[in-house]
What we know:
The chain is an alpha+beta fold.
Amino acid sequence: MMALKVATSLILVLLSAVICTGHPDGADDQACKDLYPSHGYTAKSAAEGHADCYRLVQDTEDYKPGDVITVTLSSEASPFMGFLIKAFDENEKDVGSFRAPGPTRGHSATAPVSRTPGGT
């Protein structure tokens, strides 16, 4: 009888296991291209009406090449599990680059940057 309980428990554990692909170094290249994290949760996008979940503020709207613009991403509702951010022009061409303060994981190629808690 005990062996049956152990076997049943083991089967339930195995059936409930989820296959996942982690990215210990931050977002993958595809996420940087389409800004979709593919981590199993619905992404929150201002373009899709989720701006009430977070704030993204830049310190100026006018700029010229070489200027440094501070962009602040914040949320009062809940902590971030990570983010993807990218700068592009009116033709959706990637422009500029980002430097994230503090621990950061991921790719910061051209414009996109990703961040996860406890990054290195």
